[in-house]
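Final paragraph of the annual report: two paired records, presented back to back.
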Amino acid sequence: MTPQEKLQSLGIELPTCAKPVGAYVPAVLTGNIVVTAGQLPMKDGALTAAGKVPGDVSVQDAQMAARQALLNALSAVQSQAGSLDNVSRVVRLNVLVNSSPGFTDQAQVANGASDLLLEIFGDAGRHTRTAVGAAELPLNAPVELDVTAEIRV
């Protein structure tokens, strides 16, 4: 099953690629590599959750926020690749978690995005990853992430 078919079977429709709110672009294609800008868990113009994990946002809700941020990142990848079917490999996922003091389970939050990559891309979705805590994130988002993917050119 192709990534596009997998999304359809999961009932997932990628959002429209977000317009940047600053002096940057949503994704850059260089050679056969697409690198996205940081993506927040925005849906229909609003954050799906806000605050620190786990003080304001549960780990489970933060995982869902990471999943939404990933969908936004995949939309940015698609804007450069033409289709997710052109992705040959997900190379890297970087996840920042707006963490309450003492919180050390950032990897659990990042799994919300990592698991979806594996579900959509299979073995081509196996990636390297960094999951780190942050003191604050834009708009008080619980997570921000970016993706690096290789595409067929």
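The closing record of the year follows.
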Amino acid sequence: MTLRHASFFSGVGGLDLGFHRAGIATVSLSEIDPYASAVLAERFPSVPNLGDITKIKDEEIPYAEIYSGGFPCQDLSVAGRRKGFQDGTRSSLAFTYLDLVERTKPRWVLLENVPGLFSSNGGRDFGRLIREMVDLGYGLAWRTLDARFFGVAQRRRRVFIVAARDEAFGNLGAERRRGSP
């Protein structure tokens, strides 16, 4: 059985290429930038680009066990204005993504962003993101990885959050939310 993957904030398909190389089929993309969309059309000619995440209807998304999204970083990056989730309009699209996750309930979720996510709004933005994912019934882990250790000739650190619905771990997450040890 081949796992299926739906990509959001697809960019030029870096995460999607990684899934492809791991034998996981990408069944949909979501990107609005014209240049990035052209690259995606070249790399994944038979995969539909669903466009703007704020306009996607649940029924438009082909069935996928895995959702991924490298949501916009402009409001979180130390190179930007650091508006964070509260005042920023781009990075807060992460919650539009989580609304979609809540409605469609994929088994696995992958989020990617800049390390500024950890310090934005004194760390509260990262805490909010994690809390909302746990409240949706996902157990999760995160790690910062640097592309230079994976064959890329530049230092490019990124935060990866991998989450699985509680049933992937039995009822461990639900028990913890109820206050059990």
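Residues 172-181 have pLDDT under 50 and may be disordered. This concludes the annual technical report; the extension proposal builds directly on these records.
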